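Morning!

This is the sequence you dropped in the shared folder:
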Amino acid sequence: MNRRTLLRTAGATVPVACLAGCLSNLSFTTPVEVQVRNRIDESRNVRITAIDGEDGRGTYEQSVAVTPGETAGLERLSNTDQHVRIEVLSPDGEEVDIETLTVGERSRAVTVSITDEGVSVDHNERDPPADD
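The structure's back. Tokens below.
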């Protein structure tokens, strides 16, 4: 192997090795899908807020009016540790129900269902990572 080939190989190997080291420290976040389903014969207003689990700052605030039979998709939540509050209001602004939950890095989706029996919240999580 001549000197030029050796230097070219070293020049290509070093940056790839450095990049691999940087990528091993990265973590990827996948946003949490948020849906509201109205299964009753009246419209409802839904307000969803979230606060950061560590510093208490507001991280998310979305409101939606859902008509009978409608399913609304809202802006996605980040999957960091957050305390989520879901308020369901009647069309005249009267509070009907409040639900709370915590989302985190394994959270995949939050679905709010409004039915004749009340409000339910489904919180779906991802499978835990496989051990190496």
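Headline: The first strand starts at residue 32 and ends at 38.

More detail when I'm at my desk.
O.
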